[in-house]
Design a protein that fits this description.
Two copies of one chain form a homodimer.
Chain A: E1 4-7, E2 13-14, E3 17-18, H1 20-33, E4 37-40, H2 52-65, E5 71-74, H3 80-93, E6 97-100, H4 110-121, E7 128-131, H5 134-137, H6 143-150, E8 155-160, H7 167-178, E9 186-189, H8 195-200, E10 205-208, H9 215-226, H10 230-239, H11 241-249, H12 254-263, H13 281-293
Parallel strand pairs in A: 1-4, 1-10, 4-5, 5-6, 6-7, 7-8, 8-9, 9-10
Antiparallel strand pairs in A: 2-3
Chain lengths: ~300, ~300
Amino acid sequence: MFSGLAAFPLTPLKNDEVDEHAFIGLLKRLVEAKVNAIGVLGSTGNYAYLSREERKRVAEIAVQHANTTPVMVGISALNLRDVLVNAQDAQAAGASAVLLAPMSYQPLTENEVFKLYEAVTATLSVPLCVYDNPGTTHFTFSDELHGRIAQLPQVRSIKIPGVPKDPQAAVERVDRLRALIPDHVSIGVSGDACAAHGLNAGCEVWYSVIGGLYPEIAQSITTAALNREPQEALRLSQQLTPMWELFARHGGSLRVVATAAEIQGLADSPCLPRPLSALAGKEKEALAVLLDNLGLA
Amino acid sequence: MFSGLAAFPLTPLKNDEVDEHAFIGLLKRLVEAKVNAIGVLGSTGNYAYLSREERKRVAEIAVQHANTTPVMVGISALNLRDVLVNAQDAQAAGASAVLLAPMSYQPLTENEVFKLYEAVTATLSVPLCVYDNPGTTHFTFSDELHGRIAQLPQVRSIKIPGVPKDPQAAVERVDRLRALIPDHVSIGVSGDACAAHGLNAGCEVWYSVIGGLYPEIAQSITTAALNREPQEALRLSQQLTPMWELFARHGGSLRVVATAAEIQGLADSPCLPRPLSALAGKEKEALAVLLDNLGLA
């Protein structure tokens, strides 16, 4: 499950509670598209805003509706105590793997982050993906720290935040990390705008936000890159440039994909946890036009 | 309560749960020292790492043991839904005021932060202090946004993250904010190392971490500054320079004051929520020597 396309759906809300019906609708699209894995309760899955009980329920629903598609469940929390509970809940729900970011309030040290992964992996019976996302966790991994954590039991993948767009620099970035981690640990790219670049540079999996809503286009890009058609992967990704620009303009992908889900009737409006707001007014109208133009709507 | 010294005690843990006995011991020191206000569940109070029930209990214990000292209770959370619940709990516990930071996981926009304060203040029956702490929230207020939020009902103070050490620049910084907010909203300085500078520059209150453990020394600095003895305030603060240097070296004040509390037998070791770690080994020994030298132990 740590290769190909891992699609991360929204956890849409309705009246500040998880909209289970809408969530199931999003899951179905991913199962029908036969993505390689479904990742729930990632950043796009709003894990940071949900209660323990809600997260447990989301994990259960995901496993229940995923059929044979493996489900990876985000277990991150500020407090190790809560991470361990989330890990238990995810495994009890039938998760095939868990995803763990070093979420922070007080800035964390490298040693604290290592001890976090050490404590969690010691309790796991399923594989773990290390979630490196400094834009939300405000923790920056060194490659040396990745190397140490990748030796821990159950660690099977690292979700890196992106790669440089220059092909040579991208290869160097992936090779540098690859040299420090065991062969059984895959490297996955996130940051949708540079996913094609990452896959072309040797990343084995795309941890994809856009793939959580539009799995087919993400699959085309992934397949082209993994079939060693790098130019085709780039061409397909470049078609989505206006989408990547919107992601950059709105502080990341979440507000844009949430708005797209609302536009397509796949989620109620508002579907984000307050105080987060989706796009509105003219920005929402422009996104609707863009989805049409891209053939996504 | 929004002038003078507001002291922010640790919420010490023991076996990953709130150590109520140790917490009551810390509160007693503050009551005996007659600080102007006690601020619980600030960043030093580990609010971000505690459950709703734990936060409710901490607020209740604080009010119960504060006698006539007003208690301000931190209500921040990532999700507005949880902030509103925390506000209800704090008010039900008898809080004299609440403290709200724009805690973030997804980066917040100015508009989202304004709407957060608007929604919360609309429900409050006690005053609110705006908590501006970009080091942990990763949100940077513009002065213009402070001005808009300060007009909302119940807003009575702004806890700013610090001031420049240059006296003229500090006065300019405080005056610029003062010009944008109503007279009934006080400006309080945090960032202990520049508290004397902030009070000398016109801040009316020190929201103090060191004062949560060592109220007397923080009171001396506050009193000197508010009595218009700026040189004496600076002299007293400069005596604590090795402490301020330790704060800077350990990513903020929390790990250092937690270690100091452990050294003095005021909290068990470890007293921080994992994965956070207090100082250990030689660093802890050096802090013990420093506390002795400063006459704090």
